[in-house]
Specification:
Layout: E1 2-6, H1 12-22, E2 26-30, H2 41-46, E3 54-57, E4 60-63, H3 65-75, H4 88-117, H5 127-146, H6 159-173, H7 181-191, H8 194-207
Parallel strand pairs: 1-2
Antiparallel strand pairs: 1-3, 3-4
Bound molecules: glutathione (GSH).
């Protein structure tokens, strides 16, 4: 049985949503970062960074949300959430996954770090405007990539869509605007997926205190 270590309102939603898309059995282990759950010896043995998500699957202990989503998609190729290796679509899939991590989410993460995540003495308010500008530029790149497309790669939903949609929703939740209607429509489509709705319900239940 797979175990996902996660906490509501973190990047572990990506792995949770991926598990729900695939429809495989798993256990959700809540790690309360606010109460030092990432710093316990038990959790640090799984991820010395103390970060979520972590997926444990047999002997495999995997961190990094995009790696987890890609791993899950590769384990269940018949679900068609990742293009075949060595194809042009797989190259495009990789391109968008790396884009999410390196370009789209970094300005959001910078804002979060400098608003609340870093210790107060390391926060620099002046970077917030720059990060907002960088997010808008990355969103424009995404907009161009989605022109005339329903999904980012090929003709079906992939984990690249999952990572991008989660990140756009992150921006929406934190009221970081890009002002691009096509991205709003795309996010609307992605969040109408049943697996998104199920993952959201699970997070809501976990946030209510049930482990
Ligand atoms: N690149 C990592 C980032 C993981 C990450 O920073 N997770 C945050 C929650 S969204 C975390 O666990 N933070 C706890 C900490 O920094 O101590 C991924 O995508 O999985």
């Amino acid at each position: 049985m797979k175990t996902l270590y996660g906490m509501p309102h973190t990047r572990s939603f990506r792995a949770l949503w991926a598990l729900e898309e695939i429809g495989v059995d798993y256990r959700y282990q809540l790690v309360d970062l606010g109460k030092g759950g990432g710093q316990t010896p038990e959790f640090q043995a799984l991820n010395p960074a103390g970060k979520l998500p972590v997926l444990v699957d047999g002997d495999l202990v995997l961190s990094e949300s995009a790696a987890i989503c890609t791993y899950l998609a590769e384990c269940y190729p018949h679900k068609d959430f990742i293009p075949e290796p060595g194809t042009a679509d797989r190259a495009r899939y990789n391109q968008w996954c790396f884009f999410v991590l390196a370009e789209l989410e970094q300005p959001l993460w910078t804002m979060a770090k400098h608003k609340f995540a870093l210790p107060k003495k390391y926060r620099v308010r002046e970077v917030l405007e720059t990060a907002a500008f960088e997010f808008t530029r990355a969103a424009q790149v995404l907009d161009a990539g989605l022109a005339e497309r329903y999904f980012l790669v090929g003709t079906s939903f992939s984990m690249a869509d999952l990572l991008v949609a989660h990140t756009l929703n992150w921006a929406r939740t934190f009221k970081v605007k890009h002002g691009i209607a096509r991205l709003d429509d795309y996010l609307e489509r992605m969040t109408q997926r049943q697996a998104w709705q199920r993952a959201l319900a699970i997070e809501t239940e976990k946030a209510g205190g049930s482990t």
